Write a sequence for this structure.
C-alpha cells in the first residue's frame, strides 16, 4: 500500500512526465570507509595541513555513528564491516554472519541480485575484514583462504586490492586466479594491466597480502586511480547503476603503530579517493557518496603542549591512548542524491539499512 501511495505521489508530482515510475532516485552508491579513521585522525590531518580544507569537508550532510559490536563496546573491523555491509550487529571477528553465525546478505549482494554492478577496492588484502564483509560469509575473519573462495563463488563485477597469497599460493594448492579467468574475469597483478580495460569482470590482486603503505612506497596514484577505474568499469557494466565499497585500509595500521605520520599519509590518500568520488557525483546525477569509518584506532587525541612534529610554534601535540581500537563515535560525510538521510546520530547498522532503502532493495 505504501508503495502504491508513493508511486501515485511520484506520478502526481511529475505531472508532465511521459510515464510514471517508482525507480529509486539513487542510481549509484560509492561507500568509502576509512579503517580506523576517527574524528581526531581527520582533525589531525586538517591541523597539519594548516586547515586547508579536505575533500571530506565538501560533504553536504554530516552525521555521527555508534560502532559498538554485539559482544563488545569496542568493535573490530569484522563486526563493524559486517554492520556497515549488512545492517546487522554481530560479534567481533564475524564476516557477513549474524550473532548466531547465520549468513546475512550485504547491500552489495542485494544490489548485484537486483541488477546493479558491484565491487570493492582496498589498500589491504581484499580478504581482509572490511572488504570481506561485503562479499564473504565466514564465522571468523582469519579464514582468509575460505574468504578468497567466497570471492570466487560471489556474483561480483570487480575487486581491487592485495591478496595473491590467498588466491594463488593457497594451502589447498588451487590457483583461484586461473579459476577466475575461466569464469570470465580479467585478472591483473599490476594496475597498468587495467589501462585499456573499461568494462567486464575484473580482479586486480596487487600484493601478497597488504599493499605497501604510502611510507613504504605505495603510489599516491593507486587509491584515487583504482577508485576512478572502478567507477568507470562499474558504470559501463550495468545501465541500472552500481554499488562500490572503497576502503582506505591502512589508516588503522597507523593507529595500531601509534604512528602519526602513517595516519597522516594514509588519511590524505583516502581523502584523495573521496575527491574522486565527490567529483564523480557532481557529473553523474543520482550518485550518493557516503564516507565514514569502521572504528577509531589508537585513541588519538590532539592536546595542548609544547611538542608537535609539524607545528611546534602552535604548541599542539598528539597522544595515543591505546595500540588498539576505541569506542568513540565516528563521523559520516554524505554527498549527492539522498545525502540528507545520513545527518543525525545513528547506529552503524542504520547506514546499511538506509543504503538498501535508497537503492530500492528493501521496503
Ligand atoms: Zn585495527
Amino acid at each position: 500500500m505504501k508503495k502504491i501511495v508513493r508511486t501515485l505521489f511520484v506520478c502526481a508530482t511529475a505531472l508532465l512526465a511521459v510515464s510514471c515510475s517508482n525507480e529509486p532516485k539513487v542510481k549509484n552508491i560509492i561507500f568509502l570507509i576509512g579503517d580506523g579513521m576517527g574524528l581526531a585522525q581527520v582533525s589531525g590531518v586538517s591541523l597539519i595541513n594548516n586547515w586547508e580544507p579536505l575533500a571530506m569537508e565538501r560533504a553536504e550532510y554530516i552525521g555521527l555513528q555508534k560502532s559498538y559490536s554485539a559482544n563488545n563496546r569496542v568493535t573490530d573491523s569484522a563486526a563493524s564491516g559486517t554492520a556497515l555491509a549488512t545492517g546487522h550487529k554481530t560479534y567481533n571477528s564475524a564476516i557477513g554472519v549474524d550473532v548466531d553465525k547465520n549468513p546475512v546478505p550485504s547491500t552489495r549482494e542485494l544490489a548485484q541480485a537486483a541488477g546493479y554492478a558491484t565491487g570493492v577496492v582496498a589498500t589491504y588484502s581484499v580478504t581482509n575484514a572490511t572488504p570481506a564483509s561485503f562479499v564473504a560469509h565466514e564465522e571468523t575473519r582469519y579464514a582468509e583462504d575460505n574468504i578468497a573462495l567466497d570471492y570466487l563463488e560471489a556474483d561480483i563485477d570487480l575487486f581491487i586490492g592485495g591478496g595473491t597469497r590467498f588466491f594463488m599460493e593457497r594451502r589447498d594448492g588451487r590457483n583461484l586466479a586461473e579459476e577466475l579467468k575461466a569464469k570470465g574475469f580479467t585478472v591483473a597483478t599490476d594496475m597498468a594491466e587495467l589501462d585499456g580495460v573499461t568494462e567486464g569482470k575484473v580482479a586486480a590482486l596487487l600484493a601478497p597480502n597488504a599493499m605497501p603503505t604510502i611510507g613504504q612506497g605505495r603510489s599516491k596514484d593507486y587509491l584515487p586511480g583504482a577508485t576512478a577505474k572502478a567507477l568507470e568499469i562499474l558504470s559501463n557494466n550495468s545501465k541500472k547503476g552500481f554499488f562500490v565499497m572503497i576502503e582506505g585500509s591502512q589508516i588503522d595500521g597507523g593507529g595500531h603503530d601509534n604512528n602519526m605520520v602513517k595516519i597522516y599519509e594514509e588519511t590524505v590518500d583516502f581523502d584523495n579517493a573521496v575527491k574522486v568520488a565527490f567529483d564523480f557525483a557532481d557529473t553523474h546525477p543520482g550518485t550518493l557518496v557516503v564516507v565514514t569509518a569502521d572504528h577509531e584506532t589508537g585513541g588519538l587525541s590532539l592536546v595542548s603542549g609544547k611538542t608537535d612534529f609539524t607545528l611546534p610554534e602552535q604548541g599542539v601535540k598528539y597522544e595515543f591512548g591505546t595500540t588498539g581500537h576505541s569506542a568513540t563515535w565516528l563521523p559520516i560525510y554524505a554527498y549527492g542524491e539522498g545525502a540528507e538521510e545520513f545527518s543525525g546520530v545513528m547506529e552503524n547498522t542504520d547506514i546499511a539499512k538506509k543504503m538498501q532503502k535508497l537503492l530500492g532493495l528493501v521496503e
